[in-house]
Design brief:
The complex is a heterotrimer of chains A (189), B (430) and C (313). Helices cover 26% and strands 26% of the residues of chain A. Chain A is built from 4 helices and 8 strands. The mean pLDDT of chain B is 97. Chain B is globular and about 65 Å long. Chain B has 2 domains: 105 residues, Urease, subunit C, domain 1 (Roll), CATH 2.30.40.10; 308 residues, Metal-dependent hydrolases (TIM Barrel, Alpha-Beta Barrel), CATH 3.20.20.140. In chain C, helix 6 links the parallel strand 5 and strand 6. Chain C contains 11 helices and 9 strands. Chain C is an alpha/beta fold and 313 residues long. The chains are: A alpha/beta (189), B alpha/beta (430), C alpha/beta (313). Chains in contact: A-C, B-C. The interface between B and C is medium-sized, with 21 and 27 residues.
């Protein structure tokens, strides 16, 4: 990727602050957290889910079940994506029935990834409800999907890209916006 | 009408000559040969840089007529023959009905006459109807014009019958051409037994399925006091047996097919059914043995085993496809590339295997450029480079694994009985 | 995180064509698919809208069902054709049959055939992906993959393991595919069986040959026992079942007497109980025969997924 960095929108402290805030909001929204579980979308969403779950443990002193979804097999663009999708496996080792699931992802864009995740989640059981938490909402939704907990809204053009970098995957903690390449087509906002 | 071939490299093993010179053809026969031969009124063929040799003689071809005229006819088969430099082709009798009587022999001669290209020599069956049960009427076959007998395609399984056939054929003055295959040992095998049959999982035929029968037949020829010719020798084991038999003075001759010394069992990795032949393609060691056998004279002749099959017959699972490939149009080039280029034979040596020796084995008075001989002549450009393409195939079938292959050495002109049949690579219509 | 190579092959015709990394990729992917089989709804939409044909020109219920189930777990549509229900009997050739089926817009053909090379032949006739589900005595790649997947799952590795394949090696596609896969992954492979059932030059594939079951059991850590076919008796390959059991049948008594280590027991099925495997071994603590069946579905899902992914590029 030769795209130029346009802006660094969050650093390590910024990410930490947002994770804490989202955890508090979840705790407030779901009083007592008795039937709450957190499920992240692989790869970065899964790490964020773990962090949120850790915060929730601190807030409520209770163990919150965590899971990770690999949505590769639910994607609707399997034949169009260029790179080889690797199936990493979904890890949900708790009973989903009757639970409120907080679905976690790093960046919310078109909403298609969340749609896949919703499809996959319901194949594991019948949760009481599903809520959505995202670190970044960059707009340009193509599906009627709206987050319940948003870390930060970042207005972008369609051709720009947003990258969340975490120490587990990238060795650093930051969120960066890249300028889009010229031949990318898309609506300017 | 006289023809003068000028500036030729004349290669005629029957006279032991390899000279520069001219050849004059008059009324279908060789009228003169040598540096000083001239004729200012004759049609001139300039053979500069080319080899002029006695026309090639194929001892072993399947022309399919009568019975399978969609695969090949006498006419198409003989056109393929002249395109490949052959002036005479022996037709194997496994037609439908098989060539086991005078009427059949006459039919073949008649068809060949109409074709007006190469000469045809019919081979009769060893056993009546190719049934492997009783000896065919060989005296009649000989009288009708057969030069040899063979049940090729199938072995003569009974040793008793083979002995009697050898005795009877030698009395009739016919050569017995033996298809050596022990079917009880070969079983359902479709390829040479070795590492590659193991890897490819194709049912194997051991080399011994051939060599055991070669051994039997050479011993029976000795017993019968007859001569025998071994068709399509493919394995080193068989060659060893023939070599020893020759040393003992047994009257055995042998032929090898170009595909057997060009292709090996490993090539079957593609499961290309055009590579399915009987006997099957052998190992690299067998190929080396074949080439050495050709070099040292253990193998006397190169014969095509030209076996046409339709595309839809070959477009099948390997086990279900018929055996055989066409070969008349590629035999000379493949032999030149594998044997002359690689130093096993020189050009006179190759002409000997493809013309002189076959004639000698069959007692056929051709294969020579002696003054007075019938003018069956081939002119070869040893440097010609060409690609064997499907659209140029003269045979009605195109079951050849060599399609698309680069070739070296090619036929430019062919004269049969003093008449130019191929001129500068093109068949002239009669 | 798994490091997997980009899958580029359109067909799966044999293990011989695969390199080590490709085999490992298949195995790693299969792990992801095995998890799906344990879900409450063991089905994902990955191959929704794809049509997969199973063309079985040789009877085999379990392999066909395993492939069919794998396809269904991935939401593909499946059509099953068996030799008796196809046009073969009416004289239509394999090529024509498949081209006709393909004209109905299918994406993949899974073929089982008694002739070696039939899947390769087919792959040259059609645009669809071709998966070899066993061709004559040539290859049975998915069986080898599931065997190795099972071994790796149970023992944690393949490299350096002593694996022995026992039975009719000459006529076994399972043996050939396993030999290719195991040697590529660094296992030490021994083949054991009657001399009449040993193909020539098999040692050139990198295996050790023995005709003595004592020898074979001594060092073995894994035993892959092949099904013995009674009809081979007519082909003069062995004198009879009783004699075979004496020489090569795997029994608890023989394992106890000759084996130095605990041996994992695999069998491609269906088992002739009491012939190549005694009852107590087939159902014994080291038998992983049923795991093989389960893993077979996961491995085949991985195969179908990887090959389908390749399609539209």
């Amino acid at each position: 990727m030769n795209d130029k960095i346009k802006a660094k929108v969050l650093d390590k402290e910024g990410i930490e602050r947002i994770v804490k805030r989202i955890a508090h909001e979840i705790a407030e929204q779901n009083k007592g957290l008795k039937e709450v579980a957190v499920v992240g979308i692989k790869t970065r969403g899964a790490f964020l889910a773990e962090r949120i779950s850790d915060e929730l443990r601190v807030i409520e002193g209770a163990e919150i079940p965590v899971g990770a979804l690999d949505i590769t097999l639910y994607r609707d663009d399997l034949t169009e994506i260029a790179e080889q999708p690797v199936v990493h496996g979904t890890e949900i080792e708790f009973d989903m029935n009757g639970k409120t699931i907080v679905l976690v992802d790093d960046v919310l864009f078109t909403g298609r990834t969340v749609r896949c995740a919703l499809d996959e989640l319901v194949d594991f059981g019948r949760p009481a409800g599903i809520q959505l938490a995202v670190l970044i909402d960059r707009g340009h939704r193509e599906l009627p999907i709206r987050p319940d907990y948003t870390g930060k809204n970042i207005p972008t053009t369609r051709t720009e890209s947003v990258e969340v970098r975490l120490k587990q995957t990238d060795g650093v903690e930051e969120v960066v916006v890249f300028e889009g390449t010229e031949n990318d087509s898309g609506t300017q906002v | 009408m006289r023809i003068l071939i000028k500036n030729a490299r004349i290669v005629d093993p029957s006279q032991g000559i390899d000279i520069k010179g001219n050849i004059l053809i008059d009324r279908g026969r060789i009228a003169g040969i040598g540096e000083t031969v001239k004729d200012k009124d004759a049609e001139i063929i300039d053979a500069k840089g080319k080899i002029t040799a006695p026309g090639l003689v194929d001892m072993h071809a399947h022309l399919r007529e009568p019975g399978r005229e969609e695969q090949e006819t006498i006419e198409s088969g003989l056109r393929a023959a002249v395109a490949g430099g052959f002036t005479t082709v022996c037709a194997m009798p496994n037609t439908s009905p098989p060539c086991d009587c005078q009427a059949q022999v006459k039919f073949l001669y008649e068809k060949a006459r109409e074709a007006r290209t190469a000469n045809l020599l019919p081979i009769g069956t060893i056993t009546r109807g190719r049934q492997g049960k009783e000896i065919s009427e060989m005296l009649e076959l000989k009288e009708a014009g057969c030069v040899a007998v063979s049940d090729d395609g199938d072995p003569v399984e009974s040793s008793m019958l083979m002995r009697k056939a050898l005795e009877y054929a030698s009395m009739a003055g016919l050569v017995v051409i033996s298809h050596c295959e022990d079917r009880s040992l070969g079983g359902d095998g479709v390829m040479h037994e070795g590492y590659w049959s193991t890897v490819l999982g194709l049912a194997p035929v051991p080399a011994e399925a051939e060599s055991i029968m070669v051994d039997r037949d050479t011993q029976l020829a000795e017993l019968a006091g007859a001569s025998i010719h071994i068709a399509h020798v493919s394995t080193g084991k068989s060659i060893e047996i023939i070599r020893n038999a020759k040393k003992k003075g047994i009257r055995v001759t042998a032929e090898a097919a170009p595909h057997h010394f060009t292709l090996k069992d490993e090539d079957l990795r593609t499961y290309d059914t055009n590579l399915k032949v009987n006997p099957p393609l052998c190992s690299a060691e067998d190929i080396e043995a074949l080439k050495k056998g050709l070099k040292d004279g253990t193998i006397d002749a190169i014969a095509t085993d030209h076996a046409p099959h339709l595309e839809n017959e070959k477009e099948k699972e390997f086990d279900y496809a018929p055996s055989g490939m066409i070969g008349l149009e590629t035999a000379l080039s493949l032999s030149a590339m594998e044997l002359v280029e690689k130093g096993y034979l020189d050009w006179p040596g190759l002409i000997k295997k493809m013309s002189t020796n076959p004639c000698q084995i069959l007692g056929y008075e051709r294969g020579t450029l002696k003054q007075g001989a019938v003018a069956d002549i081939v002119i070869i450009d040893p440097e010609k480079e060409w690609v064997y393409e499907k659209k140029q195939i003269k045979s009605l079938s195109s079951n050849s694994p060599f399609i698309g292959r680069k070739m070296k050495a090619g036929v430019t002109d062919v004269i049969v009985g003093g008449r130019v049949v191929v001129r500068e690579g093109a068949i002239l219509d009669a | 995180m798994k490091k997997n190579i980009e899958w580029t092959k359109r067909h799966l015709l044999g293990i011989e064509d695969l390199d080590r990394d490709e085999i490992v990729t298949m195995l790693d992917q299969a792990e992801g698919f095995k998890e799906i089989l344990k879900r409450p709804i063991p089905k994902v939409p990955a191959l929704r809208g794809r049509t997969i044909v199973t063309l079985f020109c040789e009877p085999s219920t379990r392999t066909r069902i395993s492939f069919e189930l794998a396809a269904k777990r991935l939401s593909a549509d499946t059509v099953n054709i068996t030799a008796s229900s196809s046009s073969f009997l009416k004289g239509e050739t394999l090529k024509d049959t498949v081209r006709n089926i393909e004209a109905m817009q299918i994406d993949m053909v899974i073929i089982r055939h008694s002739c070696a090379g039939a899947p390769l032949f087919l792959s040259r006739c059609v645009e669809a992906s071709v998966v070899n589900a066993g061709d004559g005595a040539h290859e049975h790649p998915t069986q080898a993959l599931l065997d190795i997947f099972t071994i790796r799952e149970k023992l944690g590795k393949i490299k350096g393991l002593n694996v022995c394949i026992v039975g009719d090696i000459a006529h076994s596609r399972v043996a050939r595919s396993n030999i290719h896969a195991l040697t590529k992954l660094g296992a030490k492979v021994t083949v054991c069986g009657p001399k009449t059932m040993m193909p020539v030059d098999i040692e050139k594939t990198g295996v050790t040959v023995t005709y003595d079951i004592k020898e074979a059991l001594k060092k073995a850590e894994v035993l892959n026992v092949l099904r013995i076919q009674a009809e081979r008796q007519n082909q003069l390959l062995f004198p009879g079942t009783r004699e075979y059991i004496r020489g090569f049948g795997i029994t608890k008594a023989k394992l106890k007497k000759y084996a130095e280590k605990d041996i994992l027991i695999l069998h491609p099925g269906p088992i002739n109980r009491g012939v190549e495997l005694s009852q107590d071994v087939a159902d014994g603590e080291y038998s992983v025969i049923l795991d093989q069946v389960t893993n077979g579905v996961a491995v085949r899902m991985a195969v179908l997924f990887l090959l389908s992914k390749r399609r539209k590029q």
